[in-house]
């Protein structure tokens, strides 16, 4: 799964790099504020993919005495930096550029060239978006997209998905603003397009940052995983009651589960030990990402 995620990030990096280069060249030719905002947006996205790859590489480091559960959660730190970078470099710059051009009217040269590069960008971003969406859907094929995004804890997929969603929306805004300029010859539409793109990036970066903050702090596993763990426990012979199930996401493919169960009276230690091993095996068989399982038997009150 991690190899598939890396492919998604590399694909997004190559797409954004080519798109950024094309947008910058055409934005200088046309003097389009909205297109320049989109070029900065794509440049920020390109840098973000580099940060994601750094996070993915560092998350593969083996556990040690200082970090006994490994370095998986380092991905969330680098992804949080992505959100900050998107906010500062993408959102604020586009907003300021749009306001500046709103005050000083300007002319777009060769606007149809801008339309052409935006259409190319829309196709490239669309492919990247669909690739990320496909990987997110692999976890639970029958769930809605909103539910999948809520439960997803794979930082690299979340970042690429949010970035590509913002990119597709931003390109659409730039297309509409450029077409309105062609129809009216009024540069105010180009400036408004840049302002809207800046606002979009700020909103997306805040949402992405909040999601990464939750994962950095340490959030519980998705509800369907907890439910499956409880179902396994309740169906295990010898267990009287499930006292407590606490989980925490440690990384894109690592979850910790701390479980307290009450066994029936009269069971010997060897039987309980066998049942604990059976439970661990069943949980890992159902959810291989639950790598760290701690089961504590409690006495019946």
| CATH level-two architecture of the largest domain | Up-down Bundle
CATH superfamily of the largest domain: Cation efflux protein transmembrane domain
Oligomeric organization of the protein chains: single chain
The overall strand count is 3
Strand content: 5-15%
Class of secondary structure makeup: mainly alpha
CATH level-3 fold name of the largest domain:
Alpha-lytic protease prodomain-like
Would you tell me the overall average pLDDT? 85
| First and last CA, distance | 43 Å
**Molecular shape:** elongated
Helix content: 55-70%
Radius of gyration: 24 Å
- Number of helices, counting only DSSP H or I runs of 4 residues or more: 9
At the first level of CATH, the class of the largest domain is Mainly Alpha
Order of helices and strands: HHHHHHHHEEHE
The order of strands across the largest sheet is: 1-2-3
Stretches where pLDDT is under 50 for at least 5 consecutive residues are: none
Please, how many domains?
A: 2
């Amino acid at each position: 799964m991690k190899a598939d995620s890396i492919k998604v990030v590399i694909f997004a990096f190559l797409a954004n790099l080519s798109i950024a280069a094309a947008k910058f060249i055409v934005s200088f030719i046309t003097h389009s504020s909205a297109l320049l905002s989109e070029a900065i947006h794509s440049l920020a996205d390109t840098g973000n993919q580099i940060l994601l790859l750094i996070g993915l590489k560092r998350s593969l480091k083996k556990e040690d005495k200082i970090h006994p559960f490994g370095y998986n959660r380092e991905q969330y730190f680098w992804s949080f930096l992505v959100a900050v970078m998107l906010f500062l470099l993408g959102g604020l710059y586009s907003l300021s550029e749009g306001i500046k051009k709103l005050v000083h009217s300007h002319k777009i040269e060769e606007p149809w060239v801008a339309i052409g590069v935006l259409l190319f960008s829309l196709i490239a971003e669309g492919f990247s978006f669909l690739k990320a969406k496909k990987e997110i859907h692999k976890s639970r094929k029958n769930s809605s997209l909103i539910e999948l995004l809520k439960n997803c804890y794979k930082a690299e997929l979340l970042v690429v998905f949010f970035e590509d969603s913002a990119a597709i929306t931003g390109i659409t805004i730039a297309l509409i603003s450029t077409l309105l300029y062609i129809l009216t010859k009024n540069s105010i539409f180009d400036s408004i397009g840049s302002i809207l793109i800046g606002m979009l990036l700020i909103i997306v970066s805040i949402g992405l940052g909040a999601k990464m903050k939750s994962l950095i702090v340490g959030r519980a596993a998705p509800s369907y995983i907890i439910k499956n763990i409880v179902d396994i426990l309740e169906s295990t012979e010898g267990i009287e009651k499930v006292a407590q199930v606490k989980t925490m996401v440690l990384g894109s493919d690592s979850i910790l589960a701390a479980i307290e169960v009450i066994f029936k009276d009269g069971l010997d230690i060897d039987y309980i030990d066998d049942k604990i091993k059976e439970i661990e095996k069943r949980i890992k068989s159902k959810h291989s990402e639950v790598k760290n399982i701690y089961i504590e038997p409690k006495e019946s009150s």
